[in-house]
Amino acid sequence: MSTSRVLRVGTVSLRWQPRVAAACVLLTAVALGAAVSVVGSGDFPVSATEVLGALTGQGDRATEFIVLTLRLPRALTGLLAGAALGLSGAIFQSITRNPLGSPDIIGFTTGSATGALLQILVVGGGTVAIAVSSVGGAVLTALAVYLVAYRGGVHGYRLVLVGVAAAAMLEAFNAYLVTRAELREAYEAAFWLTGSLNGRGWDHAWPLAVAVAVLVPAALAFGGRLRMGELGDDAAQALGVPVQRTRAALVVVGVALVAVATAAVGPVPFVALAAPQLARGLTGRPGTQLVPAALMGAALLVVSDLVTLHLPVALPVGVVTGVLGGVYLVWLLSTEGRRGRA
Amino acid sequence: MKRVSPPAKSAYLPQRLAGLGLLGGLLLLAVLASIVIGAKQIPLDQALSGVFSPDGSENALIVQELRLPRTLLGVTVGAALGLAGALMQALTRNPLAEPGLLGVNGGAAMAVVTVIGLFRVDDVLVYVWAAFLGAAGAALLVYLIGSRGRSGATPARLVLAGAGINAVFSSLTAGMMLLSPRSFNSFRFWQVGSLSGRDLGVFVQIGPFLLAGTVLALCLARPLNALALGEDTGRALGARPGRTRALGALAVVVLCGAATAAVGPIAFVGLAVPFVVRALVGPDQRWVLPYSLLLAPVLMLAADVAGRVVAAPGELETGIVTAFLGAPLLALMVRRGRVPQL
Questions:
Q1: Alpha-carbon gap: A75 to the closest alpha carbon of chain B (Å)
Q2: Contact at CB, A319 and B334, closer than 8 angstroms
Q3: Quick one: DSSP state of residue A14?
Q4: How far is the C-alpha of B137 from the C-alpha of B131, rounded, in Å?
Q5: Of B255, B213, B254, B264, which is closest to residue B108 (Cα–Cα)?
């Protein structure tokens, strides 16, 4: 287990852990490196130096067009959506104190999928309409779950169980929609439901960037209280944390993060569930860590996207995140086991 | 260990036996309803003579060929899912655990998609065996990974290993499915889970497994109670946690694997029923297991009959209706504050 060090500059002091910092640097490097390779990959390959040149405004016009207009938004969308999913997974796993308490399982992702499916299969709207209704689906689901679980305050355990019930119903409803639709439309919906980064442009990247810029600081501001909340409601209350208000605020932030990420890339599976666990394995520290989880989510999604770009067949990124994340999680578990930890 | 809680036992015994009898009565009603109600209503007397002394009339034929196999399958599969869910939640001590978490559903789905995609088969019996083998293989993998290292198969590790393996398998399934619209078309109907279209052959092949799994599960009630006290206390009282968990996992795989093979993934029954049962009778597995065994088939048959009534003359798949019946029940229980911890 790594030790904490304290950095003091005058009256300001900051506690930091070398291993956590190293993990964060590593994850950032992996995520950015993969993002540069994503920008470089495609029918017209661009080398990493050319990509960096175009980004700093020193490339030729053709390269600049390919990099800045066509491929950069895809890489950015991947980075931001991955970070948002990882962060929201960490928030919900901490609130519910359950590794299964990720937004995938407690219904918010399913709700946004329902919104999008209704738009694709019933209304027949375009990309923007799909994104809007998927956000609507997530928010409505979260609201319903919160209200049903509310009884003079929301307990994490109640929230999860009501969420699971909502997820089951919505899942069944989604399956109903998919089995009753025309094959071609259902197939298109299945693609969306797997989560894909294909054809993401600036109109996806910009709203996502704005939302993440607002939500990430909000999440980090509550980070310390989140850890105290893990001690249990009574202990946290005794330490001066307004438990109910903090929880409500964090649920809002977490749901918003899932909603914007899903609107941009579809319900990519497993990132929100796995990223916090993987981050924990990498930093070797117990408890929730928001920043490593967010970085891990970004790295996982962009590396998966890089893999899809180099596969011989065209598959959406959601297929790869599950395989990569799952194999990594399993590997972490078995190496931990050998060292006799966990 | 003989007398875990003697006073409570004697005080509640008559009440709980009566409850068990009541559930048995409900099950009988559900069975009758499932034989009588459908696209063609069959009067009760003709239905009964159709079961016990078929006279070759049209109604008797319907009962013999369609309703009876379907009802038998519903009862046995429902019972298996309820038991498997109760076992799984006791083994992992996580109320969110459903039998599919051991990788059963992911493995089964993967095997079915492989059979559909590679061998172009469209035969329910082939699906059954493929799904069963896939489920067993995946569960074995989860168990081996979850039990590596000195600490053995601890609940937290089993949960995470299950989530990881499930993600890998379901992503691979999604990939194979998305590569071919033909596989997608067969698979989207299988994955909803339905009792319809299965003849007596399926029941005959799956029945022995379900019976063996049920006997094994019921024998585990006492050791599971000891396990609930925690690893160390349990061991001190003479329990053998490792063996109990291995046998429990075996029972889950046999029960849930066979059930999924027969009717497709109907996971929610296994999650909701044991939960509701624990709210009624408390954490004693000697009551939880038999209650789950009886309540789950009631839910299953009620869902199946409701699916035939709501969408008459067509029908809604059982898997869809179980979620819509079970989820509100679960949410209501949670809201009432009846959330028994494990």
A1: 22
A2: no
A3: E
A4: 10
A5: B264
